[in-house]
Every structure is written in C-alpha cells, then in structure tokens.
C-alpha cells in the first residue's frame, strides 16, 4: 500500500467475517475479578504437569528447556525466573469452566498450548537474533543455536503427546485444533520474516500475519479446555473467536511495546522492533497514512533496508524513527486497534452460555491484555 499525501490512518478492516468497531469498549469486567489470581491459578495448575513433560526429554534438552522456562539458571542452579505472563494456561483452564467442567480438565490443554508457545519462542529468538527474553539471555545465546532448534522441536512433539495420551475422543478433537493453530502460527512467522525484506506491507497483510502468529494459538487456548470438557463445536468456535481477536489486541499492544516499551518492563532492548526492521502495526499504519511524516519515514526506512548495520544505529537514530511513526499516526492507530479488537473479542462471549463469574473473568483478562506494560 503506497502512502497517500493527506490521507488519514487506515480505517478498521474486516477480519474473520466481522467488521471491527471504531469505538473503544464501554464494558468493563467486575472489579471483584482478580486477574493476577487468574494467571497464578493457571500457572499453578499447569506447571507441575509441564515440568513432568519436560523431564521426559533426553539430556541435555531437559536442562536447556528448564533454563528456558526459568526453572534453573545458566549454571544449572534452581532459579525462580520470570516464566512469562501465563495468559494461555489461564485461558485454557477458564475455557474448561465455560463448558461446565472442572478447571483441572483444561490442564492438559493448558500444558499443550504452553509447549507449542514456547517452541515458537525458542525458534523465534534464534531467527530474530534476540539475545534477551524475560530479562535473561535467550537459549541460543547460552546453549547455542542447535540446542534452541532441537529443544523447540521436542516441545512441539511433547504438546501432542500430552493430549493424545489421554486416549479420549475429546483429546483427539483438541489435538486437531492444536495442530491447526500450530500450522497457522508457523505461517505467521514465515510471513513476519518475509515482510522484513519488503519495502511496503499493507495493514490487511499485517493483521493477517499477526492473526496467524498470535491470534491462532490464543484462540486454541480459549477453546481447548472446553473441548476437553465435552463442549460442542459451536461453543468451541465462539470461544476461538474470542481468543483470535484477543490475540490481535494482544499483538497490537506487543507492537507498541516493541517500539515504545520500557526495557526494564519488557526485558528487551530499546526500540527492539525497529532494530529488527519489523513491519509491525505502528510502522505499517504510519506508512499507509500519507502526509509529510509518513513520506519521510518511508524514505528513511527504504534507506535502512539497504544498510547492513541497522542494529548498530545510535539511540538517537532509532528515536527519530519512532517519533516519525508517532507523528504519522501509527502509534495512536495501533492503540485504537487494540481496543477495537478487544471489543470484538468480548462480543464473541455472548454466543456462549457460561456462568456469569466465568464470563466476567474472560472480560477481565481481555482488559488486562490491552492495558499491560510488558
């Protein structure tokens, strides 16, 4: 999409057959919902099963995986590292309750989704050259690229084992959804890499990529517990729609943090997405907006594409690019898009009969996604 002088930032697009609204969500979850407790419950239920799965790996993959999850440090000593936000395990457990099952029913799904998610992180860190994750050196930096690849592959295989060894019809249905989501996630990563080498990417292309890379697995997390609990496809599909649009909101916020996030909170370098030449939503929206700032940004990024050492640019050079993105409207548009996708996600919950408490928890977790700082 070429920049057009004087044009406004892109209008909301149609995704998954539904037009995204243009107003921020008016609904808020009940104040009584403790999102931190929801996340901690998902982590507490899933972690013992996750550890048991990782323990099956042959040495040294078991140790490398334990380092990645933050259970040990680089020397092999026990550690209480940051294991991530645990949004996906929380959603899987909540989806079991949405289907009327006990939260524990969703635990194998929570573990399987978490294994696939971390498979993608191990490979993404290597492909993107990221040296830091969760305030620590990444696996490829500590243990080498070969181990990052092998352990990622092993986690992917374990995810399917954890589900299929249940031996139930529901486990087979859940595995089909997980494998479909995994394929979409890989498609999204391939799109992301290819976009780095293109001068222009449209907003629709960017949203499709982010829907694959982030939305698909979150969608699976939101349905997999319900499927294991015996929910029909109509219920599971509605929960997937919630998760898909929640994933787009989640990624929009990630894109903002990838440029303007505080490194002390994100655990990544300043301007991390700009260093990697990522065509994230703020960049794409700014380039599509038109106007002087958009045109100047396009010229600078075109020159950057020919430079071999963009990661070694000064902080001032990255700051100037971030300022142009903001001036062109990319930051504001992406923030609004996160809120629009949030609203679509919450509306999908209306299609599912579930306890009021569980619905409020889904809404509260969606609220958390669009206001987080890490």
Automatic annotation (TrEMBL):
Gene3D superfamilies: Farnesyl Diphosphate Synthase. InterPro entries: Isoprenoid_synthase_dom_sf, Polyprenyl_synt, Polyprenyl_synt_CS. It comes from the Bacteria. It holds the Pfam family polyprenyl_synt. Keywords: Magnesium, Metal-binding, Transferase. Residues 1-28 are annotated as: Disordered. CDD domains: Trans_IPPS_HT. Belongs to the FPP/GGPP synthase family. This is Polyprenyl synthetase family protein.
């Amino acid at each position: 999409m070429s920049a057009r002088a004087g044009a406004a930032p892109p209008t909301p697009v149609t995704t998954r057959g539904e037009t995204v609204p243009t107003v921020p969500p008016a609904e808020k979850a009940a104040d009584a919902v403790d999102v931190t407790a929801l996340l901690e419950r998902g982590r507490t239920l899933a972690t013992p099963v996750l550890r048991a799965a990782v323990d099956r790996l042959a040495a040294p993959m078991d140790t490398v995986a334990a380092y990645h999850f933050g259970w040990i440090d680089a020397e092999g000593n026990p550690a209480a590292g940051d294991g991530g936000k645990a949004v996906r395990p929380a959603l899987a457990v909540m989806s079991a309750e949405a289907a009327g099952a006990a939260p524990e029913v969703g635990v194998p799904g929570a573990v399987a989704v978490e294994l696939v998610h971390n498979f993608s992180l191990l490979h993404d860190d290597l492909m993107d050259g990221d040296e830091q994750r969760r305030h620590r050196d990444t696996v490829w930096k500590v243990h080498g690229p070969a181990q990052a690849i092998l352990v990622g592959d092993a986690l992917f295989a374990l995810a399917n084992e954890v589900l299929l060894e249940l031996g139930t019809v529901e486990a087979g249905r859940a595995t089909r959804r997980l494998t479909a989501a995994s394929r979409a996630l890989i498609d999204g990563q391939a799109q992301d890499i290819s976009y780095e080498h293109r001068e222009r990417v449209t907003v629709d292309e960017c949203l499709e990529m982010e829907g694959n890379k982030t939305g698909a697995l979150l969608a699976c997390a939101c349905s997999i517990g319900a499927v294991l609990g015996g929910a029909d496809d109509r219920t599971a599909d509605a929960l997937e729609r919630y998760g898909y649009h929640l994933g787009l909101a989640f990624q929009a916020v990630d894109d903002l943090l990838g440029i303007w996030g505080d490194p002390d909170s994100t655990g990544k370098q300043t301007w991390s997405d700009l260093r990697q030449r990522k065509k994230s939503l703020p960049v794409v929206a700014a380039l599509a907006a038109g106007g002087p700032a958009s045109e100047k940004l396009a010229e600078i990024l075109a020159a950057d594409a020919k430079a071999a050492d963009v990661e070694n640019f000064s902080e001032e050079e990255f700051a100037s690019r971030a300022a142009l993105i903001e001036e062109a409207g990319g930051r504001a548009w992406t923030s609004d898009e996160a809120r629009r996708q949030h609203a679509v996600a919450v509306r999908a919950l209306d299609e599912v009969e579930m306890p009021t408490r569980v619905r409020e928890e889904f809404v509260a977790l969606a609220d958390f996604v669009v206001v987080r700082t890490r």
